[in-house]
Design goal:
The structure is a homodimer of 332-residue chains. In chain A, helix 14 (305-315) runs antiparallel to helix 15. The first copy, chain A, has helices at residues 10-21, 33-42, 65-71, 84-88, 116-123, 140-144, 158-166, 181-203, 208-229, 243-254, 259-268, 273-280, 285-300, 305-315, 320-330; strands spanning 3-6, 26-29, 59-62, 74-77, 100-103, 131-135, 149-155, 173-178. The first copy, chain A, has 332 residues and is α/β, with parallel strands linked by helices. In chain A, helix 1 links the parallel strand 1 (3-6) and strand 2 (26-29). At the A-B interface, helix 9 and helix 10 of A face helix 9 and helix 10 of B.
Chain lengths: 332, 332
């Protein structure tokens, strides 16, 4: 099984580290040839997780996406969701024939309001049975530091998911299997919205007591959405307290590594969305997610009062204090 | 409705502050007459929350428990569970006739392995319909600082619970109603055990990713126990993500105010139980709770593998690293 990693951000770099730590040769698509040159010369990514060093004999890096796809059986997609279309639009519709795709993105294609599998199904000859997602509370910084983490591999075809997962298990990484492929992806998206809210609450100087009530109620709201977003109508009970659901929500809301929380904190302190984005030189995934989920929740007919207020703050000029006064009244 | 507060620790002091902030006159049993003298003279409790000042005209303090009970309609019990029997054993069996009792303790009577209502029913003419519990993620320090917090009032008689709750609602305190009286009490007990585990994990230098997975799995384990501990067989769905359940677990596991977490952290760093207790000059409620719950889970026939390992570490000399190696394998 030959893996190709698409992207070179912090999460892509962490996944490259895990596979090469397991002595896998990997193909690696990196857009910027300067980055490739740096890794070739210095054995680490200069921009992300630069303390993680690679055995270069295991790396086949290229800025040509068709070449990397050609060389790989399993493509791990780890570019920000906002750049998915730009990245993939150069490919022919048969480019993914015979390939498996593992989504490592934690967002939704913003203008299209599509999950990666939905986009691939519309754009390529691609079947969801070849689609997998890797998720979990897994801040890349802790993977780089080899702190024990858990990754969940989700797919409709559980045997294939198990096979893929087996290549990631290392001394610092445990793997979990799941086949709620829509649910885990939406959990990864929703948690960023709630984490922004946690950051806003922190910026507004609410305390630990409030934050815990806010996050607990957010968990409940998230699960209400996930029950509606399931692909199957099976009665099988999903454990929403597992790491890919509640675990990921908790780390994103509480960890100081969380960029969405940091972004929210600036909003809570009174920065505008624009200034917060410039200051952090990034778009927090939760920002676009709040708009996409706002629409999607209407399609699914599920009420998300907390997420709607975060959306109002970020997109519709709802004053933060007013928004949180409303949230206060919702919590139980 | 005349309230009597029994105890003068940090939580008792916070509850006295809330009621007097609402301009209620209260009766207050304080064992130590020096403390009464200090509050009389200086208007604050010298030992706990000493930044909270009282309007002394609203306080009727006494070291005589029979007198305070006599003067009150509703008794709020806020002494550590380990001292309940010593405190109440001086009373006649009719001492609680016509009284309502609100438990503000977050533990179990250690040698007897009883919740407060069970102890009162055995010891006095007391009916569980006169029993209520006040719970929630409510670190006393944040109440003192008037940070918005949520208190849950639970009782079988929801009208009475509502009436009692109405006296606590202030600008910095929202109230929530509940009638799963056994569940909320056990949640308050179990969360201390898991928080000790969170502290141990922190002491062992696990990272944020692991901690979130550990806490999420603990939430699941806690709910399994609570479903079995329900008094009623009603099919009514309980919202286990509410503040009294998941909220309280989160604040206890994550907040630096949490004494159980601090205690666990010392155990994780290699201190013995004895030394950690001496150093913190207190018994963390979770320490006794782990033993009581270990027994109780057998009575209820519910498996608590995480809590059992914490129990093993605290009571049966299971080495911390070995215990957490086992926990690592349980998590999903």
């Amino acid at each position: 099984m030959k893996f190709g990693i698409i992207g070179s951000g912090s999460w892509a770099t962490a996944l490259a580290k895990i596979l090469t730590d397991n002595n896998h040769s990997i193909n690696w698509w990196i857009r910027n040839t300067d980055t490739i040159d740096h890794i070739t010369l210095r054995k680490h990514n200069p921009h992300y997780l630069n303390a993680a060093y690679f055995d270069n004999t295991l790396l086949n890096m290229s800025s040509s996406l068709p070449y990397i796809i050609e060389e790989s059986d399993v493509l791990i997609v780890a570019v920000p969701s906002a750049y998915i279309h730009d990245t993939f639009s150069i490919l022919n519709t048969d480019a993914l024939d015979g390939k498996k795709v593992v989504s490592a993105i934690k967002g939704i294609l913003p203008d299209r309001n599509l999950l990666l599998n939905e986009y691939l199904e519309q754009t390529f000859n691609f079947n969801i049975r070849d689609y997998f997602a890797v998720l979990g509370p897994c801040h890349a910084e802790e993977v780089a530091a080899e702190k024990l983490s858990y990754l969940t591999f989700s797919g409709i075809d559980e045997d294939k998911a198990k096979d893929i997962a087996s290549h990631f298990k290392t001394g610092y990484l445990n793997t979990v299997l799941n086949h709620d492929i829509m649910g885990v992806q939406y959990a990864a998206i929703l948690k960023n919205i709630y984490a922004m809210g946690a950051g806003i609450a922190h910026g507004l100087e609410y305390g630990d007591n409030f934050l815990s009530v806010y996050i607990a109620n957010s968990a409940d709201e998230m699960v209400r959405f996930l029950r509606k977003a399931r692909l199957d109508d099976e009665k099988e009970v999903i454990n929403y307290a597992a790491s890919a659901y509640l675990g990921d929500l908790l780390v994103t809301c509480y960890s100081l590594y969380s960029r969405n929380r940091t972004f929210g904190n600036m909003i809570g302190k009174g920065y505008s969305v624009k200034v917060a984005q410039l200051e952090l030189s990034m778009v927090a995934e939760g920002y676009n997610a709040s708009k996409c989920v706002h629409k999607k929740s209407r399609d699914l007919q599920v009420a998300l009062p907390i997420a709607d207020i975060i959306y109002g703050i970020l997109w519709e000029h709802l004053p933060v204090a007013e928004g949180f006064n409303k949230i206060e009244k919702l919590l139980v």
